[in-house]
Specification:
five-stranded mixed beta sheet, binds 2,5-anhydro-1,6-di-O-phosphono-D-mannitol, eight-stranded mixed beta sheet, 6 helices, 15 strands, 29% strand, alpha+beta, single chain, binds magnesium ion, Fructose-1,6-Bisphosphatase, Chain A, domain 1, D-Maltodextrin-Binding Protein, domain 2
């Protein structure tokens, strides 16, 4: 596993350099979800592919930017699913973006996820790695190295509310619940990039990030294999919860297709329990 994490550290520096110095225009094609691809999305995908080609433990790659899986080493056992540059549409306004990695062994199914990691490209580069049985670990780039900062642990209750999706397309019970959190004193924190938004909640001790099913996107927007499941694992390891609209743990998802999405709610315990009550799924 260490070789996979070392590869992610090298990738983080290379993608950060690409964000700062490369062409930010549109590529000629769309990605597998039918969204416009930026040249930097394609470049970030290639940077990751090039690095994992050198890691014999990696058997296969599944990327937000690729239609199918890419087979690598037949001797390897880790299947790495990744979103090379999440929130890339925020680069032109100079907001933080990120890369997300889910490392699966055995099957592409949430319960076979053995580790996850994400990188935040902000004023500084930060990396968070979660492995089974321990709290997520935060690293910060200093020079050309990552320095350990410490464990991440969620409080029982937070103060931040990050509600995703277009409000006019929310279900009335979802809107009522989000409003009730604001009425309780929660503060809005939403940049439109799930990596910095979820990172902020993790580092500030708690809160809620939601991306529900909406009238225009009944199954939500965020992709199970390389967005939802890696962060669900992070939140559970940090002492929080991650569920879907039925109250099921996102760590029980069994994706049918590589690019399947799911409604998702990540938070500290208080907010997730309040959500279950509001949704009538207690
Ligand atoms: P992307 O992978 O195409 O960048 O889209 C994912 C992003 C997430 O980072 C973010 O949480 C979400 O899209 C924001 O969507 P919305 O603008 O609908 O709130
Ligand atoms: Mg994404």
């Amino acid at each position: 596993m260490q070789t996979v994490f070392e590869a992610i550290k090298k990738i983080a520096f290379e993608i950060d350099d690409a964000i700062k110095n490369s062409d930010l225009g549109y590529a000629e094609k769309e990605n597998a979800s039918g969204e416009d691809q930026l040249k930097i999305d394609v470049l970030s995908d290639l940077i990751i592919e090039k690095e994992f080609v050198t890691v014999p433990r990696v058997s296969m790659l599944v990327s937000e930017e690729k239609e199918g899986a890419l087979q690598l080493h037949s001797s390897g056992s880790y299947m790495v699913c990744y979103d090379p540059l999440d929130g890339s549409s925020l680069i032109d306004v100079n907001l933080s973006v990120g890369s997300i990695f889910g490392i699966y062994e055995g099957s592409l199914d949430a319960q076979y996820l053995v580790a996850s990691a994400y990188v935040v490209y902000g004023p500084r580069i930060e990396l968070v790695i979660a492995i089974k049985g321990s709290k997520p670990m935060l690293y910060r780039a200093e020079g050309d190295q990552f320095k350990v900062i410490g464990e991440i642990s969620l409080n029982e209750k937070g103060k931040l509310n990050a509600p995703g999706g277009t409000q006019q397309n929310w279900a009335p019970h979802h809107k009522a619940f989000i409003d009730s959190l604001f009425a309780e004193g929660y503060r809005l924190r939403y940049s439109g990039g799930m990596v910095p938004d979820l990172h902020q909640i993790l580092l500030k001790g708690g809160g809620l990030f939601s991306y529900p099913g909406t009238s225009d996107k009944p199954y939500g927007k965020l992709r199970q294999l390389f967005e939802v499941i890696p962060f669900a694992f992070m939140y559970e390891q940090a002492g929080g919860q991650a569920i879907n609209e039925k109250g099921e743990r996102l760590m029980e998802l069994v994706p049918q297709h590589h690019h399947d999405t799911s409604p998702c709610f990540f938070g500290s315990n208080y907010e997730i329990e309040a959500l279950k009550k509001a949704y009538g799924i207690n």
